[in-house]
TrEMBL record:
Keyword line: Methyltransferase, Transferase
Keyword rRNA processing: no
GO MF term list: methyltransferase activity
Domain Methyltransferase: from-to ranges: 46-143
Presence of keyword ATP-binding: no
This protein's name: tRNA (Cmo5U34)-methyltransferase
InterPro entries found in the cross-reference section: Methyltransf_25 (IPR041698), SAM-dependent_MTases_sf (IPR029063)
Source species of the chain: Acinetobacter kyonggiensis
Amino acid sequence: MAKDFNSQHVVDGYDVHIRKLIPGYEVVHQQIQALLKTYVNEHAHVLIVGCGTGYELGYLLQLFPNWSFTATDLSATMLDKAKHYIQPLDALHRVEFVLADVDQLKTDSIYDAALSILVTHFVPYAHKPEFFKAIVSRLKQQGVFIGFDLTAMNTDQERGMLQHICEANGLSTAQSSAMLNRLADDFYPLSEQETFEQLSSAGFASVRRFTQVLSYQGVMALKV
């Protein structure tokens, strides 16, 4: 059964649960920060596709006080959580929250960077090409795309390794088994080659992997 991201219970427990599901969650975000500092100017406008509970948005607002953000999500419950999360930062004036998919945003090429962290693997296979094209069409020339997602697992050993590390991070055996059973309902993962091909076809160049933790992989690309 697919997870309901409109459920208040699911949203309230998300930040704790995700750290058990994703090996090296904090380290991945440190790498994303380093990429942004390297590739993006100090007065950037950044698109966050699927902002979730606002954790990612919150630390970027604090790190980059001259940046503005557009934060999208398909869940009104998630957006409300994100708004409450960043409210103490006195930075709401720097964020536009949008309850919509990326293809519903204005088509102006206005963003210096776009982040899709733990989002693309939820996009159905048939919709992925348009998803990537929608992002690239909204980036400025040489705008950077950063994604981090589950990639396709082809063997029982790969699935077993993911289960073991999630249990080491705090999931019970029942929870980790449920996670694996949900993969068919929740996820539409690509292989590394398929990811590179789709990003290139959408109009990105310099596509490369910047990190990998078991079957989770981070990629970056530039708009040509």
